[in-house]
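Sequence dictates fold. Below is an illustrative record:

_____
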Amino acid sequence: SGSLHKDNATTLPDGLVGTYEEVFSKSLNSIKNSRKLKLFSCWALLSSPLSLNDISILFQTDKKFLSYFIARYSKLFLTNSSNEISLYHERLKIYFLQRISKNTFDESVKVIIDNVLKIENKTWIRENIGYYYFLGNDIVSLFNHLTNNREYESKNWWINNLRDLLDGLSLNTGTDDFDHHPMNYKVPNFWTFLSKYRVKRNQIRLVK
């Protein structure tokens, strides 16, 4: 039908980004101060929905203020059947992340990393914390997270974290030569761990 919908992030043509933003223009135009943008940037970094209580802990923001904030910008949020909250559309995540400075981005990632282990949803922590280690350029913690959760190696989140680890190694050194990577000297059994996986540019296949 060509209508804009919360679930069509991957199919929405780039040419319609402006149209999508226009739908929310009144709400978006009122978001100008840095505190609001930083809060929205934290929300944009959420890889999956969370309860209000966990978001309050994760963002270190008063729950009453968050309730007011969500009500104030209700068109920009979505609450699922489990009463978990997220931004309404992936395009909104892109919108906010494109409008913050690198410092604000780094600060938002740090806030999440500093508080993620305090939230109640332990499954969410396990499946998402590796992503924030990657964003925070903490390759050692990401590696440790993967090795500590080897029983989940068939799960999409674990495989995605492995991709993030390899991407992070390449970005930090400009090389795909993991056999001689400095991490081999920093972390015991690093190469032994990686050698158990057959790695291709866009694919990781588990080697049994």
Confidence is low (pLDDT under 50) at residues 1-13, 198-208.
